[in-house]
């Protein structure tokens, strides 16, 4: 009888110890889960904060692009109006008003369709073609597999590169030159935008710029580089820009090629 009571006590003690161990284990699991949830919450807050900072910087850069771009267009209008007749100046102003409307509409969005961006770019090139008195040729080529109405890119992404090609590559050639924009899509779902000019090349352009009394700052290029870096940070993408110097068969400078690759 006594032995049975002792065995029952031992079983009760073992059961109590087992319950205590289970409770302790459960408490540890709850504490671990709470700690993990807190870490996730802090990480989410940090990510949200970094995203909002990046969005604020992106908005600031877009707001800086607009006056810079408009200022350059107004300068073109002023010079063209002085040198040409009122009918052509009126045509120039009409294109300018359409261009500004597109620029302002695009700047409200973080992304626009490729068709929208190319339409804006064509208007800009038309204005520069008029200003250069037909010495500038501009062509846009879109491969059949690129859906320009579906694919989206940051607004005013291409214009600074085209502007740079015109002002630093072609303006130093008395006979003028050509700028081509080509859109294609790779099998890796990469949108490739290639901007090619047959200007004097970066080295010669830098030499001429250093000798010039007025140095035209590549403000748009700087803003575009910063925007691409922010886009990569904000959307965890890997948009890449590569600039190549072109040479002819004799190894002489024959222009510049800018290749922009954007994950779709």
Explain what this protein looks like in three dimensions.
Helix 1 runs parallel beside helix 3. The protein has helices spanning 2-83, 86-107, 114-131, 159-170, 202-211, 219-235; strands at residues 112-113, 136-142, 152-153, 177-185, 190-197, 240-247, 253-263. It has 6 helices and 7 strands. The model is unreliable at 212-217 (pLDDT under 50). By secondary structure, it is α+β, with helices and mostly antiparallel strands. The chain has a single domain (53-263), classed as 2-Layer Sandwich (Heat Shock Protein 90), CATH 3.30.565.10. It has a 5-stranded mixed beta sheet with strand order 2-4-5-7-6, with helices on one face. A two-stranded antiparallel sheet has the order 1-3.
List keywords for this structure.
Bact_2-comp_sensor_kinase, 264 residues, elongated, two-stranded antiparallel sheet, 6 helices, Heat Shock Protein 90, 7 strands, single chain, alpha+beta
- What is the domain tally? 1
CATH topology (level 3) name: Heat Shock Protein 90
Rg to the nearest angstrom?
31 Å
Q: State the helix count.
A: 6
CATH architecture: 2-Layer Sandwich
The major sheet is characterized as:
5 strands, mixed
Look at the helices and sheets and give the structural class: alpha+beta
Low-confidence stretches: 212-217
Shape: elongated
Give me the CATH superfamily.
Histidine kinase-like ATPase, C-terminal domain
Give the strand order of the largest sheet, numbering strands 1, 2, ... along the chain.
2-4-5-7-6
Percentage of residues in helical conformation? 55-70%
| Assigned CATH class | Alpha Beta
The arrangement of helices and strands along the chain is HHEHEEHEEHHEE
- Spatial separation of the terminal alpha carbons: 81 Å
The averaged pLDDT comes out at 77
Proportion of strand residues: 15-25%
Number of DSSP strand runs: 7
Q: Tell me the quaternary state.
A: single chain
Domain Signal transduction histidine kinase internal region: 56-136
InterPro entries: Bact_2-comp_sensor_kinase, HATPase_C_sf, Sig_transdc_His_kin_internal
Pfam families: His_kinase (PF06580)
Protein name: Signal transduction histidine kinase internal region domain-containing protein
């Amino acid at each position: 009888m006594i032995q049975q009571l002792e065995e029952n006590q031992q079983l009760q003690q073992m059961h109590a110890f087992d319950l205590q161990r289970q409770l302790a284990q459960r408490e540890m699991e709850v504490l671990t889960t709470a700690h993990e949830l807190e870490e996730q919450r802090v990480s989410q807050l940090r990510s949200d904060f970094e995203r909002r900072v990046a969005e604020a910087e992106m908005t600031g850069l877009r707001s800086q692009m607009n006056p810079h771009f408009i200022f350059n267009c107004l300068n073109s209008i002023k010079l063209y109006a002085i040198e040409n007749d009122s009918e052509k100046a009126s045509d120039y102003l009409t294109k300018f008003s359409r261009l500004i409307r597109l620029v302002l509409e695009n700047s409200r969005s973080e992304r626009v369709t490729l068709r929208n961006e190319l339409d804006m770019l064509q208007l800009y090139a038309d204005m520069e073609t008029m200003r250069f008195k037909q010495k500038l040729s501009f062509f846009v080529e879109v491969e059949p597999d690129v859906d320009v109405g579906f694919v989206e890119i940051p607004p005013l992404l291409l214009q600074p590169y085209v502007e740079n090609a015109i002002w630093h590559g072609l303006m130093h050639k008395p006979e003028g030159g050509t700028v081509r924009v080509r859109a294609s899509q790779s099998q890796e779902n990469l949108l490739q935008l290639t901007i090619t000019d047959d200007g004097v090349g970066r080295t010669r352009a830098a030499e001429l710029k250093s000798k010039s009394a007025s140095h035209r700052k590549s403000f748009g290029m700087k803003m575009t580089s910063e925007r691409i870096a922010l886009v990569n940070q904000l959307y965890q993408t890997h948009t890449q820009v590569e600039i190549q110097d072109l040479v002819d068969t004799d190894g002489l400078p024959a222009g510049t090629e800018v290749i922009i690759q954007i994950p779709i």
